[in-house]
């Protein structure tokens, strides 16, 4: 990271230049000199700068990708700029920024410069900049759906007709209230696209930490969708591992562990107990435990790890554990009765 010390000084002398930048000019690939490089990068939430030499083929290729990335970013009006600097004519700028090979890409965000480490195709570039911007609503056309799935927080994705402005508006209306807990995405379908199998609009959920599948039913209106997204932000059956264990313990709410060796078994049992978990929301937590990795923990909780899948309740306050009889087949009814007998 390299702090941009001179930016403040430069900005004051460049107000005139900036005033002449129209929004349309924003998302084009800007050919910059020292001054316009700093002006651009301090005037946008995030910038990507390409440092290159003229008449150098590898540079032309990356420049082409940047141009196409700029077009995509322009469509969505992102607060991002793409800058190209010719290190032949702007040698001092490149030297000052320690550019020693070409092409080099740097990301400038919130006053600091860092290396761009991703692939240099336009899609990866756009994805990287969108992640940096962390927008309230992600537009997901053109194959950007995978990006939202790769985030570590739940994503609620609404598929709409391109002309359905009212649904798009309501998604934008509820997104600020979900910031940091759930990301919202919109996939808009036009007549030219492949036909979709479901009636538009419809809602999909990608929840990296929920072992049960969350499905949205009911009308896509502001209240229903907002309520749903709020609920989705908390998993019905979460995952117990070193990253989540502390939160479970600190909540002091008794935890029902679903212990099994395979992902498939854990999800099967999670789906079985979904109704019990929903019914006991607030008084019990439910989470799976991967016994292939954390078998010792299941053993400590009193389960025979040779007879899995198994289920055990841990009462953090009373410091006691209650394994479900491992000779019995786990069913929703069995779990419901077992838990009722403990409460
Ligand atoms: C874009 O980001 C810059 C820097 O964070 C900010 O000053 C500016 O107001 C933003 N512009 C828009 C249109 O949001
Ligand atoms: C931007 O940088 C400032 C100062 O380094 C820091 O306080 C602030 O949290 C940063 N903002 C974001 C959005 O990262
Ligand atoms: C669980 O209960 C709380 C409060 O009782 C409620 O706000 C929340 O929406 C419920 N969550 C689910 C997933 O039903």
From TrEMBL:
Q: Which GO terms describe its biological process?
A: protein folding; response to endoplasmic reticulum stress
Q: Which residues form the signal peptide?
A: 1-27
The record's SUPFAM superfamilies line, in alphabetical order, gives: Thioredoxin-like
Which reaction equation describes what this protein catalyses? Answer: Catalyzes the rearrangement of -S-S- bonds in proteins
Q: Which CDD domains match?
A: PDI_a_family (cd02961), PDI_b'_family (cd02982)
**Span of domain Thioredoxin:** 55-129
EC number(s): the record gives: 5.3.4.1
Q: Which GO terms describe its molecular function?
A: protein disulfide isomerase activity
Q: Which UniProt keywords apply?
A: Endoplasmic reticulum, Isomerase, Redox-active center, Signal
Q: Any transmembrane segments, and where?
A: none
Compartments, record wording: Endoplasmic reticulum lumen
Where the protein is mainly located, per its record?
Answer: endoplasmic reticulum
Q: Which PANTHER family match?
A: PROTEIN DISULFIDE ISOMERASE (PTHR18929), PROTEIN DISULFIDE-ISOMERASE A3 (PTHR18929:SF132)
Q: Which family does it belong to?
A: Belongs to the protein disulfide isomerase family.
Q: State the function annotated in the UniProt record.
A: Participates in the folding of proteins containing disulfide bonds, may be involved in glycosylation, prolyl hydroxylation and triglyceride transfer.
What is the recorded name of this protein?
A: Protein disulfide-isomerase
